[in-house]
Structure formats: C-alpha cells, structure tokens
Amino acid sequence: MKRDLLLLLSFACAISTSAQHTFNVSVSNPSRQSRADQPVVISLQQYGNVRSALVTCNGQEIPCQLDDLDLDENFDELCFLADLDGKQKKQYTVTLSEEGEPRPYPARVYAEMVMSNTRDKKLKKNEQNNYIEAITARGDAAYSYNLQHHHGVDFESELNGIRIYFDARQTLDLYGKFKKQLELKETQFYTSDEQKQQGYGDDVLWVGQTFGLGAFRGWDGQQPTLVEPLRSRTQRIISYGPLRTIVEVIDRGWKADATKAPINMTLRYTQYAGHRDTDVDVVFNRDVSDYRFSTGVINVKGSTEFSDKKGLRACWGTDYPAADTTKWKLETVGLAVLIPQKNIVSEEPANKDNYAFVVKVAGRQMSYKVAYCSANETFGFHSQEEWFEWLKKWKKEVEQPVIVVKP
Q1: I want to staple 230 with a disulfide (CB 3.0 to 4.6 A). Which of 139, 191, 224, 357 is the partner?
Q2: pTM to 2 decimals?
Q3: pLDDT (0 to 100) of residue 9
Q4: What residue ranges of the chain have pLDDT lower than 70?
Q5: What is the DSSP string of 118-173?
Q6: Which ranges constitute the DSSP H helices of 45-97?
C-alpha cells in the first residue's frame, strides 16, 4: 500500500506542471452475475493532446491503455478493464496528461505479423523474426497467402488465438490452448514437438474455403462469395496491447456486386484480455444498404448445430485440422457467431460447408461478435451442452453490458 501511494504521488508530481484532466468514471453491473475484464472505453477527443494516463480505483492503480486508432500519432481512446460483482458499482478516477509516455503494464494480449523467411535455412518454423505491422498486396498478387509466415496477422488473449488468412478468403483460423497463457510469440502458430510436451497449444481447425470463424464475405443471391476481385488487400496492426489488441483488414476497390461500383471495406478485429470472444466492426467508404453480404461458421465434420433463431448460431464438432491426418490428432471445437437481428436478412439452411447468415448493412457499418473454444482447454468446455449453455449466458451479457457514466 505504501509503495502504491508513493507511485501515485510520484505520478502526480510529474504531471503537476503539465496540462491535465482529472475526472471520475462510474461503472456498474446491471446483472446479478459477477463479471470480469469488462471493457471501459473513453474517447479522448475533448481532452487535447493526451500523452499519458493513470486510472485508479479506491486508491489502487488499474492497468490502462491508450490507443491511436487512425495512426496520426495522437491517442484517440483510453481503455481499461473492470471487475464487478453482481449489481456492483465502482468509481474510477482517470487522470490524463499532455506529457509523458503510456505507463507500462504486463501484456495480456499479443499480436504479430511476420514476413515469410525461406532464405535462412537455420531458422525453425517458429523462429521467424522479420516483424512488420502492415502489408499491402495488389489484387493481382499471385499468392499473397504465402507472403507472411503464418499466412496472415495473428492475435490472442490468454484464452484464444486467431490468424486471418491474407487472401480472398480472409478466413479466421483457430489455435487451441491447454492453459490460460499467451503463446503465439513462442509458437508463431506452428507448435514444435518440444513445445507440445510443455503444454503449448496448436492449430485446431481446418477451414478450406469455408467461413471458419465468422469471416465476412459477399453474397451472390445463392451462396457466399470471396473478397475478390479487388484493387488491393491490406492487413495491419493498430494496437499491440497490453489490454486489447486491434488489427485491421482493408479491402480497396472490392467488386462485391458486379452490377455496382467497387467499394472499400475495413474489417476491424478487437481482442480484449480475458475474453474468448472477439469484436468485429465492418466499415465501408459509402452507403451499402442495397448490398447483401454473408457470414457464419464452418460446418465442422459431424457437428451439432445450435441456433436461437435470433442471431446466435453455433456448432460443436470434431475433425482433423489439416489434410495430413498422420501428423495431426482429431480436434474438437465449439464455434459461434452473434449477429444483431437488425442486420439479418436470412439464416440459411446448413450445407456441407457452413452455417450461414445473409446480412445487410444499414448505411456504412455494422458490428458483430465471434467466439470459440477448444476441448483441449483445461479451463473451458468439454461437451456441446456446456458450450451451448455458455453461449446463452454470453449473449445475455452482450445484450446487457456494464453501464459506464463519464463526463
């Protein structure tokens, strides 16, 4: 306690001579169920050129994060995570300063982009180090899938791990864990035999041409279409953490409908610490209300489907995660996508590939969520009954978020 007080006094002295803003934020849980790691996001638009921040609750410092969302070297949002008992209300004190640097906290998320390095034969498959944070491929690139080491940007929380293929599929492929921990920096999605013996996870899903976990695509009136043809495709990392990581896929000049003009689409994926679900925000450069799109989850071989017929659709199934079944074991996963009802045109009958939705966008943007689990988890779910029951609770939590009151 004494050390914490000294840290707070030190911070206060450091910012006393600079422009600063201090205000209180009230966060309350409307549910009777306790909630952990609930995101609280505050726009910084009205606070000038914020360079550092401090968040406290009852005099205790709370990890926080500043994010520059448009990459103009000015922070746009402050984020912190709240833990609340049922019906509990907490007050947080936020101090913003126009001097200093963001305070360091232990990383609870991770994101990575790595250029493929085939020249250095001494490197093992999970020892690539040509780190980048953005890449753009022209629409006529021969095989953009192979430009990056793990075939696209990847990111994780302690509970999950996802990579997004850098090609017309833009599929979300999945990494299953045994333990709650960050792993992708060490395994780079390709777990060695030694790492497997140490309890690291691995790829757990075969996706092929399917949606995988909630890929966003076109719709030709009868079936999903890939994100092609287009002028260019970009992947980039907006934020590395420590509490949330944000990555984007930008499709420029996409001819989603051959009868209409090309459009630009930005898919933003936000992964919060402590979460197995991922936020997906879809933004277009103009009104696309008259377009139709699609998303959903793969129909895992022999899977059982769950749907509440109100935007939540999921499955539980078992399959090999790769074509070479001699090197892989069967993997059991639970997948889910949650679409706002206002965006649903139809819930399509299941086919051999997907459990699909046809969706519409009112204006220029829409948001939805995806979530998954692996039966390998020591901390998760091991039956379809457990998974489907968690999904019902998850949807209730999404529809009844914590209440944030700020200036």
Answers
A1: 139
A2: 0.93
A3: 47
A4: 1-18, 118-123
A5: -S-TTS-TT----EESEEEEETT-S-GGGTBTTSS-EEE-SS-EEEE-SSTT--EE
A6: none
